[in-house]
Design goal:
The chain is α/β, with parallel strands linked by helices. The protein has one domain (2-267): Rossmann fold (3-Layer(aba) Sandwich). Strand 5 (210-215) and strand 6 form a beta hairpin. It has helices spanning 2-5, 22-25, 42-59, 78-87, 116-129, 142-161, 181-192, 196-200, 229-234, 239-248, 276-294, and strands at 12-17, 68-74, 96-101, 172-179, 210-215, 221-222. Pfam families: His_Phos_1.
């Protein structure tokens, strides 16, 4: 009874970036306003309201449960809180189980007040150094974000394992994480075990864009259930990454994808398919020892 075994798992984990902010249209805003206080623009507010309606459509769509519910995690930044507030207008109160402000899904820290000209030079340096490991002066690298997102995931799994997020007659739970572009990409990288090189090719989310990780019949999450192959290509996933997402859509939880190259093959050259060569060498050594003993 595969479905019963995984009944406590959320049906979907949805990552959504905030709406358009004043910093998205004018980088000079960061020189006078702390990053966490950057507000949404009127366009960003409208994007958030539209995104809320699209989220409800995803959860209440064809074949969905009548008893679906949503639980939100939100970055403490003003633009993410405002995005959640506006998106929430599309939800009835009985649909929302709860919400938690989660500091570990905040934006990458680029330093304190950010002078536009200086940041331009810094970001050019980041391109030469590598986007994942470059640490901003007085700020963070994407690798630092990876570490705190990893901690958040551990807490998330504890909540899931202890069934803390299921309430009442809910039989289809949706977790929605309202966060930032890089943080969301790092979340996907950690979840799907993508390499640093694969991360470097990922494209950012658009404002109020979201990615739906949906639970397959075998208990694995996949982007390929809700999203098309063309969308995955546009987001920067390689052919191998897309093939892995398709495999996950029907895979049983805990199975190993032997055709996934970055799990094994990309770390070694010419691994033997069996231990025959080693066994042959041992047999030859034993024969030589026997010959030496006869002499």
């Amino acid at each position: 009874m595969p479905h019963a075994q995984h009944k406590a798992l959320p049906k979907r984990i949805i990552l959504m970036r905030h709406g358009e902010s004043s910093g998205n249209i004018d980088g000079a805003a960061y020189a006078t306003t702390p990053d966490h206080k950057i507000p949404l623009t009127p366009q960003g507010l409208a994007q958030a309201r539209s995104a809320g309606e699209r989220l409800v459509q995803v959860m209440a769509g064809d074949g969905g449960s009548e008893k679906w519910r949503a639980y939100f995690y939100v970055s403490p930044y003003e633009r993410t809180r405002a995005t959640l507030r506006e998106a929430g207008r599309a939800f009835g109160k009985r649909r929302v189980i709860g919400v938690r402000e989660e500091c570990r899904v905040r934006e990458q820290d680029f330093g304190n007040f950010q002078v536009e000209e200086r940041m331009r030079v810094v970001k050019e340096t980041r391109e030469r150094f590598g986007r994942f490991f470059y640490r901003f002066p007085e700020g963070e690298s994407a690798a630092d974000v990876y570490d705190r997102v990893s901690g958040f995931m551990e807490s998330l799994w504890r909540d899931i394992d202890m069934n803390r997020l299921h309430q009442g007659d809910c039989d289809e739970l949706n977790l929605i994480i309202v966060s930032h572009g890089l943080t969301s990409r790092v979340f996907l990288m950690k979840w799907f075990k993508w390499t640093v090189e694969q991360f470097e090719y990922l494209n950012n989310f658009g404002n109020c864009e979201f990615r739906v990780m949906e639970l397959g019949p075998g208990g694995e999450y996949s982007l390929a259930i809700h999203h098309t192959e063309q969308e995955l290509e546009q987001w920067g996933l390689s052919e191998d990454m897309i093939a892995d997402q398709k495999w996950r859509a029907t895979a049983k939880r805990g199975d190993w994808n032997e055709k996934c190259p970055w799990y094994l093959d990309s770390f070694f050259d010419n691994l033997a398919d069996s231990d025959d060569s080693v066994e042959q060498e041992e047999e030859e050594e034993e024969e030589e020892e026997e010959e030496d003993g006869k002499q």
